[in-house]
Specification:
Heat Shock Protein 90, 512 residues, alpha+beta, 5-stranded antiparallel β-sheet, Beta-Lactamase, 38% helix
Length: 512
């Protein structure tokens, strides 16, 4: 085990009085606040350094873990958090040395949980009065340690600055950052805004959005990814910041971690100065990049599906209310058993019409509904139910491929069902005969016209739509005037036949 060279480490010495004793301990609240700042920076430091970070305190001759940051960027060395565990002082000699002498040490050792070889680096945590209050232990698996040694020297230096800031509670705002994961990219940007280091993942992220050239030594300004803004704000505030940036179809989460380095007082003996009194100078920033594009798209799809489900529930509730109203209207007219049978048959047809709309809603996932297809389906269903043996019912359909929002499509389908059924019924009275019905859909741009014409005997001379007592026509009139906010009229044709017309303003398809 060898001590790190003086040139490659920051001063972590303990401030002492001239008689060699420690300075008086600060107030408990002050120490507690300082340790909370240290803890707040441990998670992001563990993620970036791809290591476990453990904070030890000495209590009753035992080492107690007061904080443990398990990295999100790599598998932890521990099966579970070591928080609140106690260890014999001999199990962690470097932590004991840091706590008792203020030494910064590094060595290869084995983690006791599973015997995996690791690189252990330990710093004393020294509060503002120069008192050692904890030991900050960074444990890195051997493979990751070797990878780090092969990275650019500027990145290694920036990592030392990051750990120094974490040890001294200088990673302000780090508690607000989301974790840095395995497939996130990392850049080191100097204080002038130039990129000096990119991880392989970061290079691939930029290539995906069109930056194929070597990004090293390039400034952040001018990038469509808006990296410069978040880094500049973090450097001005000297505080970690996280922002989500949208550009094109991409969503990137930026996390900027401003770095500072201490300027040691070389003229002083290393055991006589307090590291908190050293001047800190800006040293650039780490920029962490998470590509959230796929996750954001999935989130948007889920929101759309959730809104669709709510809308479907709303439509089902309204349509069930409509069915209940129709049943009540028919119930009032029932006198005999035959009336009941007829009422149930009519109700079945109306429910089938609503079911057809819900079938299209489920298939089209909330998109506007093709009324031409719905009309064709309803006509086939009514014909199947109403056509008697030996009878021929012909229903033709003309008009464009008209699309309506689901609310209007439901009311319109019920109206079509009633008009076709009514046309068949009145065309075969008083004797059964073949029936020809023409259904025409007209898209007037801002209005819709539905026209149903039969070849029956026509209207009686005293026909008055306002006083008609037929349930089917009453339903159509209610649908046209109240649900569709339009109008309904019936015309007698010459020499025979009847034409029923429903006209209503077309709702915006955004209401689908």
């Amino acid at each position: 085990m060898t001590d790190a060279s003086w040139l490659d480490r920051e001063p972590f010495a303990v401030e002492q009085n001239t008689n060699g004793t420690h300075l008086p301990a600060p107030a408990p609240d002050q120490t507690s606040d300082f340790l909370e700042r240290v803890k707040a920076g441990m998670s992001i430091a563990a993620d970036i350094s791809r290591a476990d970070i453990v904070l030890f305190q000495l209590q009753r001759n035992e080492l107690v873990v007061m904080a443990h940051a398990m990295p999100a960027s790599i598998s932890s060395l521990y099966r579970q958090s070591a928080l609140h565990r106690t260890y014999h002082t001999q199990e962690h000699p470097l932590a004991m040395e840091a706590l008792t002498s203020g030494a910064h040490r590094r060595r290869l050792r084995e983690v006791l949980t599973d015997g995996a070889p690791v690189d252990e680096e330990v710093w004393p945590v020294i509060d503002g009065n120069g008192v050692i209050v904890a030991a900050f232990s960074v444990l890195t698996n051997l493979i990751e340690h070797e990878r780090h040694r092969r990275r650019k020297r500027i990145f290694q230096t920036a990592m030392r600055w990051l750990k120094w800031m974490a040890v001294h509670g200088e990673l302000r705002g780090a508690e607000d950052l989301s974790p840095f994961h395995e497939f996130d990219g990392i850049l080191y940007v100097n204080e002038a805004g130039s990129i000096e280091y990119l991880s392989g993942i970061a290079i691939n992220l930029y290539r995906r959005v069109g930056y194929l050239e070597d990004m090293r030594r390039r400034g952040l300004s001018g990038l469509a990814t808006n990296d410069e803004a978040v880094v500049a704000r973090a450097l001005r505030a000297q505080r970690c910041l996280e922002e989500t940036v949208e550009f094109g179809d991409h969503y990137w989460v930026h996390k900027a971690v401003p770095l500072r380095q201490a300027q040691p007082q070389w003229q002083q003996p290393r055991t006589w100065f307090n590291p908190h009194t050293l001047p800190l100078v800006p040293a650039g920033a780490f920029l962490l990049i998470h590509d959230a594009t796929e996750a954001r798209h999935r989130e948007q799809e889920l929101k759309i599906k959730s809104a669709l489900i709510k809308e479907v529930h709303h439509r089902v509730k309204n349509n069930l209310s409509s069915v209940a109203s129709l049943v009540r209207m028919q119930a009032r007219r029932i006198v005999t058993v035959e009336d009941a049978r007829a009422a149930l048959a009519d109700t079945e047809e109306r429910i089938r019409s609503i079911a057809i709309i819900h079938e299209y809603l489920a298939r089209e996932e909330g998109r506007p509904i093709s009324m031409r297809e719905v009309c064709q389906r309803i006509a086939e269903e009514v014909k199947r139910i109403e056509q008697k043996p030996g009878q021929v019912i012909t229903i033709t359909l003309a008009g464009p491929s008209l699309h309506l929002a689901s609310r209007q499509a439901t009311a319109c389908s019920l109206a079509i069902n009633e008009l076709i059924s009514n046309a068949i019924e009145h065309s075969t009275e008083p004797v059964m005969r073949d029936v020809l019905i023409d259904v025409v859909l007209e898209d007037g741009g801002d209005f819709v016209r539905l026209q149903v014409t039969d070849d029956g005997p026509g209207l009686p001379h005293d026909f008055n739509l306002q006083t008609v007592r037929g349930l089917g026509l009453q339903i159509v009139r209610t649908l046209a005037q109240e649900d569709l906010k339009g109008k309904f009229e019936i015309r007698g044709n010459i020499p025979k036949g009847t034409t029923a017309i429903v006209e209503f303003p077309k709702a915006s398809l955004a209401d689908a």
